[in-house]
Amino acid sequence: MVSAWEPTRTRGDDVRNAEGPLYAENVKLRVVAVGLAFFLAGVACAWVGEAWLEGVSSQTVSSVGTALFTLGLGTIAYEVWLRRSVTREMLAAHRLSIDLTRAGILEINSVRDVDWKDFVDSNAGDMTIVVPHARTWSAAHAQMVCELAATKNFKVTVCLLDPSAPKEILELYGHRTREYLAEVEEQWRRGEATARDRSGHALRIEVERLAAHTPHSFYRKGDVMWVVLHSRQRDHSRPAILCARTGHNDGLFDWVYAEWRACKARVAAQATSKGKES
Questions:
Q1: What is the DSSP string of 36-78?
Q2: pLDDT confidence tier of residue 240, bands split at 50, 70 and 90
Q3: What average pLDDT does this structure show over 208-232?
Q4: I need a labelling partner for 177 at 20 to 30 A (CA). Which of 72, 75, 187, 274 fits?
Q5: What is the pLDDT of residues 241-253, one digit of tens each?
Q6: Are 118 and 221 in contact (CB under 8 A)?
Q7: Segments in the chain forming alpha helices (H)
């Protein structure tokens, strides 16, 4: 009995599956052989039409020869060059798709083109924002995040650069870094107070500080995050990568989040060690 989920197998299927690449190579050789036969037949017809025939017969045979010649040449060119070129491109694209899927990458965009409200509103779970200070981003979106946190009851953790970090770290972000950090923290506190007054609900907004340099920022909402690369160029739109949790270390989400947690643990251990020494 043949199941509806199991297509009927023929002897030809078994032969093809058993031979694998050898069968495919034989098919290619046959196609090239047929193309070569058309090519030679076209040459022969053109020669016969020109050398042995006259009038309408000569024109007809020559035309047939030209058609066969063109068909044969096209078949050979397609099989030898074009098909292999297209196959290589398709295989490369397929491998890239597999790599992106394994890394959990969903989208690559410019940070200025990300729809942040839709990102926060459409993804479930708590939110973690890890940035040096993100003064411009916070000014534009802190209030929106706080209001959504009030209505949807999710926790927001904002991790900023520690104003007491070593001078060489603070100077990576400009000479006004401490001023910007105070301004950003005030934006979040003000957004929290406004959202609480409007909704009547208590919010879970936590501002942390990290005395370390990170090469990227990230905005996590549940199991997805935007990873934004840092730039030393002013007024330059930075690339942003949307990725999802994969559950393995090859995933961008998992790697970035684990790196942040490891960085926090290392900084905490160093602070504890210094405290004991003092």
A1: HHHHHHHHHHHHHHHHT--HHHHHHHHHHHHHHHHHHHHHHHI
A2: very high
A3: 88
A4: 274
A5: 999 999 988 899 9
A6: no
A7: 11-19, 21-51, 55-77, 83-103, 116-122, 135-152, 167-170, 177-199, 252-277
